[in-house]
Amino acid sequence: MLPAEVGNSGFPAINPNIHMSLVKIQRKGQMTLPTGVRDAVGLADGDMVDVKVSGRRIIVTPTLIIDRSKFPTAADEYTSEQRRLITARLQEAEKGPYFGPFKNGAEVAAFLKKRTPGTKRSKLKKSR
């Protein structure tokens, strides 16, 4: 039974820290944990959980296999000046112009040849 107090309506008042949902067991015993439940315990795609049986209860506990907080973030890898430069270039690229779509590599090559006039193609030397 859940820890609860009797509210004014006579029904038990559910603890707001407890997230409850009714989920359906699918084929092969699979179930989907609702977003609110996953968010409440910090679960993300690919995280592992420990599953135990206690009497008639199934206890699902998040298990930390790899501490994601130890991984560097993008903020750790670039200086603030580099971040500003990357952001500016991404914003410029989003403006366009856009080309394509191309059906195959030959169309891409033909487009690039037209796009870069005045550049000489270097010939490959034959190896013996």
Describe the fold and architecture.
30% of the residues lie in helices and 16% in strands. The protein has helices at residues 35-41, 74-77, 80-95, 105-115; strands at 4-6, 12-14, 48-54, 57-63. The protein has a domain at 12-64: Ribbon (Pemi-like Protein 1, Chain: D), CATH 2.10.260. The longest helix has 16 residues, at 80-95. It contains four helices and four strands; from the N terminus they run ββαββααα. It starts with a strand and ends in a 13-residue tail after the last helix. The chain is an alpha+beta fold.
Tell me the span between the first and last alpha carbons. Answer: 83 Å
* Helix-residue proportion: 25-40%
**β-strand number:** 4
- Categorize the overall geometry: elongated
CATH topology category name of the domain at 12-64: Pemi-like Protein 1, Chain: D
Provide the CATH top-level class of the domain at 12-64: Mainly Beta
Instruction: Give the uncertain stretches in residue-range form.
Output: 1-7
Share in β-strands: 15-25%
Per DSSP, the total helix count is 4
Enumerate the strands of the largest sheet in spatial order, edge to edge or round the barrel.
Answer: 1-2
For the biggest sheet, the summary is:
2 strands, antiparallel
Using only CA atoms, what is the Rg?
29 Å
Overall mean pLDDT score? 77
In short:
The protein is an alpha+beta fold. The protein contains four helices and four strands, in the order ββαββααα.
Tell me the layout of helices and strands.
Layout: E1 4-6, E2 12-14, H1 35-41, E3 48-54, E4 57-63, H2 74-77, H3 80-95, H4 105-115
Antiparallel strand pairs: 1-2, 3-4
